[in-house]
From TrEMBL:
This is ATP synthase subunit c. The gene is atpE. SUPFAM superfamilies: F1F0 ATP synthase subunit C. It comes from the Bacteria. The lineage of its organism: Bacteria, Bacillati, Actinomycetota, Actinomycetes, Streptosporangiales. Keywords: ATP synthesis, Cell membrane, CF(0), Hydrogen ion transport, Hydrolase, Ion transport, Lipid-binding, Membrane, Transmembrane, Transmembrane helix, Transport. GO terms for cellular component: plasma membrane; proton-transporting ATP synthase complex; proton-transporting two-sector ATPase complex, proton-transporting domain. The keyword NAD does not apply. The record marks 64 as: Reversibly protonated during proton transport.
Amino acid sequence: MNPMGVLAAELSGNVTSIGYGLAAIGPGIGVGIIFGQGVNAIARQPELTGVIRTNMMLGFVLTEALALIGLVAPFIFQGI
């Protein structure tokens, strides 16, 4: 393999890692907003703690699903 082929392979792996790192920023911000607003809502209306907590967990699960899709997507599209 020529030196340019090796360089291209190394660059491709690094770009994938950087891409996932950037893709993880969105869900990280989303989780922070979800829990921050959930705590704020519970502080304002403590009698609705159960409903608010359930909605927080649902939002958390959906947001984390995006992070997992971002983790798996490079492996899926690698063959294309």
